[in-house]
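Researcher: Batch entry, complex prediction.
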Amino acid sequence: MTKKAPLTIERGALEPAACTCASLRRAARAVTQVYDEALRPSGLKATQFSLLATLARRGDQPLTRLAEALVMDRTTLTRNLKPLVGKGWVGVAQDGDQRVRRIALTHAGQEALERALPLWRDAQSRLVGRLGAKRWSGLLDDLKITVDAVRGG
Amino acid sequence: MTKKAPLTIERGALEPAACTCASLRRAARAVTQVYDEALRPSGLKATQFSLLATLARRGDQPLTRLAEALVMDRTTLTRNLKPLVGKGWVGVAQDGDQRVRRIALTHAGQEALERALPLWRDAQSRLVGRLGAKRWSGLLDDLKITVDAVRGG
DNA sequence: AGCTAAAGAGTGCATATACACGTTATGACC
DNA sequence: GGTCATAACGTGTATATGCACTCTTTAGCT
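Model: Structure tokens for the complex:
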């Protein structure tokens, strides 16, 4: 019956140096730079690649629904779409409901995505390789669980 | 000798839906909103809290060194400091070397940090509680390893 | 001293992010 | 059929992020 079953949170977890938010943002910064650089020849940033890929996977969608899928503020998505619409990669169409803006991948957008795909795969496989498949998949699971934890309630 | 020891990366890892960068950014968005809301009464955003906490922990420091510690672009740090300097929470001092700007936490900054600390602890302990201490500490480790993986070479 | 490479830093530009607020269109209810 | 809550959306404002470029200062070399 020496130390066991911690009722309290583990040592150090409540020191700012262990801030979950800061750690996530730091990792996001570091990894984003790598993906952005890898994608540079395609003219896409990592965020934009994910946006196009999500559209390709899920099809046309109202803006708000797309924002929810991306766990992104609706107004952030509105602005993130702007450069993509400007390049003709994404189209915005009216819906039966006049309030709704349907977001769609254009043909040019599909092509841009296909051009970027091998570049993305290079970056992704490099990173997965360095982390190891096991740690990588654990990380992805944990990130998903974290998102659910702060949203699900 | 049925399926074993995958020489290739695991199934699905090279599909955009499994993008490491997008997953990190998504989790960072979700968690940042929680911390930002918790910190709101203090007038600090999560990013700013971490910046002040880092300064408190490491002491005065040249801008570039601080940026490296935060795994943040130097020019990003310059701009992130602006609102904190404006509020008198951070001071910028000359160094013997005229090129160097030493960044320091002011007394008011120390107080702001102390006011924010219990708010941060609430948010942090809530999240650690929801994830469970084990998963949380694994996540933090993995994030650190990820940063090292993309920077260390 | 003078030249030069490199270090430290700021600015212009573009994107990413979200809250507060206002606008328009729907749908429900009386 | 008018009233009103709500849903969907855009904009203003502020911060966060980083690349390309430029400027100043320092250190090193001759």
